[in-house]
């Protein structure tokens, strides 16, 4: 029996790696941006199905202050480098950027600053204080008008495997499961771990963060993960989607009471792919009812040839991002119920070059390519975005100045106001062939079935 898995992951070498040298980061100079504003869309039905009901119109009637985020990811190690940070403050002040995503619980399972008396953090000895003075750092972020997002890597946790192996995914022989990188993963059914994540999120809220972002809030899909065993007393009949949804609901509802926003990073391929959704346990519309922001990772390099009608999506940044976000509108529009609040969509955009795709299969993601991605966000009807570069190498000179960004925002608002109402047919129920549904439920997909499902996203088959 073959297992279908989603292949999307953040491949680029991380700036938080032990040997990272912030002085090695170089800025890329500006490149003239030229793009074709038209898009040939193969799926005319998808074009027609876009609906205002899926747009970013639902907001919370509470006291939290929303910001239209234009942000970047910033690993913790560069925060401790004076030279890097001096350049960083200048770049933030003189471009349209207004937000940062900072590692708080990092990819190695360590807490990057001293949280001073947070129960389970102290008990587990999780702190590795790369950031030595969080109060001063937060004060400076506020002085520069920067919206702060605390990134919490959730279910992948290499550190916990060494101190709480009973919380981790286990192999049939009882040993702790490790992924392709040798990292351990948390068993999402271990609800006591949710409290650990909640404690971290509450500490971040108390220390001044505006938003808590949960990354890797999903099941592992690496080779061998499908063989992991679960205690029926813990699963209690709940499938992957049910337990991940329950975890997000628990974390989100509790953290919103702390006055912070909550966001979830999700695979881009789950948006209209039931099989990818079930593999990782992330249901896009369901999670959108719980979080304040959905952050799909729609990097063009992570889509296989043929997606969006493109020979190689990485070579078409504008078309790939536009296609992915149209799928987002379709998915949320179909699920929308009048009166319900859906999360705003704030995608992660690619700011790295995917050279691992091989010669002829990728382009350099320079200022021009990134600007095309940003333009696609606006053309899809969305307003917010975050750039991902694990090596924190951004083309700052390719971004607009604050003044230019304000004028662009005004032009976009005027342009959207002049558009006719969109078709509401997107609210019709999604159709999924009964034969495929039965095969999916029975984990018995034919090669023909797989070919059909692969149209919704990259699926890797492991024998």
Evaluate the radius of gyration. 21 Å
Count of DSSP-assigned helices: 15
Main sheet summary: 9 strands, parallel
* Proportion of strand residues: 5-15%
| CATH architecture identity | Alpha-Beta Barrel
How many strand elements? 11
Strand order of the largest sheet: 8-7-6-5-4-3-2-10-9
Please write the string of helix (H) and strand (E) elements.
Answer: EHEHEHHEHHEHHEHHEHEEHEHHHE
Distance between the termini: 7 Å
Helix and strand content put the structural class at alpha/beta
What is the average of the pLDDT values? 83
CATH fold label = TIM Barrel
Question: Could you estimate the helical fraction of the residues in percent?
Answer: 25-40%
Shape, please? globular
Point out poorly predicted stretches: 1-8, 11-16, 25-60, 424-437, 451-463
Question: Briefly, what CATH class?
Answer: Alpha Beta
* Number of self-contained structural domains: 1
- CATH homolog superfamily: Glycosidases
Concise overview:
The chain has 463 residues and is an alpha/beta fold. Helices cover 32% and strands 11% of the residues. Helix 11 links the parallel strand 7 and strand 8.
């Amino acid at each position: 029996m073959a297992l279908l898995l989603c292949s999307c992951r953040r491949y680029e070498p991380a700036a938080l790696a032990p040997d990272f040298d912030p002085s090695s980061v170089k800025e890329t100079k500006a490149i003239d941006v030229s793009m074709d504003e038209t898009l040939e869309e193969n799926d005319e039905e998808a074009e027609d199905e876009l609906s205002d009901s899926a747009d970013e119109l639902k907001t919370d009637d509470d006291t939290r202050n929303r910001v239209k985020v234009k942000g970047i990811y910033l690993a913790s190690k560069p925060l401790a480098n004076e030279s890097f940070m001096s350049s960083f403050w200048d770049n933030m002040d003189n471009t349209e950027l207004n937000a940062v995503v900072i590692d708080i619980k990092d990819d190695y399972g360590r807490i990057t600053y001293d949280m001073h008396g947070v129960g389970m953090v102290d008990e587990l000895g999780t702190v590795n204080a790369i950031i030595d003075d969080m109060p001063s750092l937060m004060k400076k972020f506020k002085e520069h008008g920067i919206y702060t997002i605390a990134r919490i890597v959730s279910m992948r946790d290499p550190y916990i495997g060494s101190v709480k192996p009973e919380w981790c995914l286990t192999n049939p022989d009882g040993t702790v499961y490790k992924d392709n990188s040798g990292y351990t993963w948390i068993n999402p059914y271990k609800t006591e771990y949710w409290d650990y994540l909640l404690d971290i999120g509450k500490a971040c809220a108390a220390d001044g963060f505006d938003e808590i972002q949960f990354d890797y809030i999903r099941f592992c899909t690496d080779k061998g993960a499908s063989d992991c065993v679960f205690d029926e007393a813990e699963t209690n009949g709940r499938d992957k989607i049910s337990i991940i949804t329950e975890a997000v609901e628990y974390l989100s509802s509790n953290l919103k009471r702390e006055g912070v926003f909550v966001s979830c990073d999700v695979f881009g391929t789950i948006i209209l792919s039931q099989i990818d959704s079930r593999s990782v346990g992330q249901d896009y519309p369901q999670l959108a009812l719980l979080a304040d922001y959905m952050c799909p990772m729609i990097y063009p390099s992570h889509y296989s040839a043929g997606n969006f009608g493109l020979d190689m999506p990485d070579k078409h940044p504008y078309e790939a991002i536009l296609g992915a976000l149209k799928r987002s509108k379709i998915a949320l529009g179909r699920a929308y119920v009048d009166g319900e609040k859906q999360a705003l969509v704030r995608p992660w955009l690619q700011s790295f070059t995917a050279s691992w795709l091989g010669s002829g299969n990728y382009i350099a993601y320079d200022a021009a390519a990134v600007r095309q991605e940003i333009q696609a966000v606006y053309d899809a009807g969305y307003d917010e975005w975050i750039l991902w570069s694990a090596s924190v190498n951004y083309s700052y000179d390719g971004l607009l100045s604050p003044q230019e960004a304000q004028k662009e925002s005004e032009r976009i608002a005027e342009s959207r106001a002049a558009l006719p109402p969109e078709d509401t047919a997107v609210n019709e129920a999604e159709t999924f062939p009964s034969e495929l549904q039965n095969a999916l439920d029975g984990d018995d997909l034919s090669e023909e079935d797989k070919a059909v499902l692969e149209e919704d996203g990259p699926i890797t088959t492991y024998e």
